# Entry
Amino acid sequence: MKESFVFSGSGGQGIMSAGITLAHTAIDMNKHATYLPEYGPEQRGGSAKCTVVISGDKIISPLPKKCDNLIVMNEQAYAKFGEDVRKGGILLLNSSRIKEEVKRDDVTVIAAPVDDIALELGNVKAANIILLGILIGAIGIVSREALVLSLEEKFKSKKPEILEMNIKALDRGIEIGKKYK
# Structure
């Protein structure tokens, strides 16, 4: 089974980090994965988007016409990419920043206040990890255990509290995502 993901938002929101972490985790689980980053022309705070494709088979094209899962961190990204998710796909929104009502009824909409949750946990930078947790809880594309191993590798040079907070963020996201299984 092949699954495509588009992560979108602004620079500094962890868009690229979430995408590469998902792709690495899939590879660690012996799946095929591609990761394709795209940046806006701005030097800081500009648009950020990446596409991840995960499959049990070889991947012919890293760019789907429509994605299966669209993860949107802010209003600008929603306005730009909101129609890029296929019918029957998942539209995952950061409702801390996106207040616009979703007019599509042909996708599963998951709206979660990930910035607010991340702040509760102690660091707004964990919002992207919450989003990954929601994906795992909702569709289970990679296992929690494999993603924790990826986080351990990613944060091995940081203080242990950083890893602990990110694992809490992941688990909180999984809780939310399970409601949409």
Observations:
- The helical segments are 15-28, 75-81, 114-121, 127-139, 144-154, 160-178.
- Residues 66 and 86 are 5 Å apart (CA to CA).
